[in-house]
Amino acid sequence: MMRSIKAAKFAGEAVKYIVLTLLAVIFLFPALEMVLKSFMNDLDIRFGALFPSVFTLQPYRDALDAQYFWWLKNTIIIGVINMVGITLSSSLCAYGFSKLRFKGRELCFSLVLATLMLPAICMQIPLYKMYYAMGWTNSWLPLTVPGFFGGGALNIFLMRQYMRGIPDSICDAAKIDGANKFVVYAAIVMPMCLPIAGYVMLTSFLGCWNDFMTPLLYINEPAMYNLSLGLYYRYVNNAGGIPPANVQMAAATVMLIPCVVLFFFFQKVLINGVSVGAVKG
Prior knowledge:
With 281 residues, the protein is an all-alpha fold. The chain has 14 helices and no strands.
């Protein structure tokens, strides 16, 4: 009896891991193909080979020129600015909604959450008209400044849920000792919110790293492109001729590396941050 139970349990676990492995292969195959093609020569690309006959780094030499690294620098700058701005502004909003008592607090928070139901594409035309009237087009201002004004409803929600798990007695004790509201926020609340703050910082940076639509709308000067927009104009919308697929794959592989590295080192922050933030309070 015990052997049959153990055998059934083993079979169930084996089936589960086989299914998960197959799903992982299916989802990772496009990325694996991209990496393999980035090491192929032109002949392998022309005949549609699945594996390189000879591994070559020439596609990387052709893809990684000075302009590529210039766009990479722009992307990092925009990402870091948003990482700081979104985390700071969303934490301030969350602090107000979780620890400050004022009339209409729950109504205001409900209105903030209601913005999650608005499709982002519906806001593009009003935002463009507003930024155009302000003279912000063809600059980084539409890509960076909005991050300092709220940080997004979802980030505010996650930060608020986590802050609600911090006992009010700790904040009240600090106020009795003479700390004002900003000191309580900076010296007490935020140090206790590092897990969810780390999650917001990482997702904000990765969101800017992969952002294509926003720079496409507002940036016209090639020197101000981020990496996504620069690669689009170089490899997709290029009237002067599109480089071979192996060069394109090499450029895309290098762009993928920071995302993989960040997830590898901070996967616990990314996985636990949203779950912890969702159940706190």
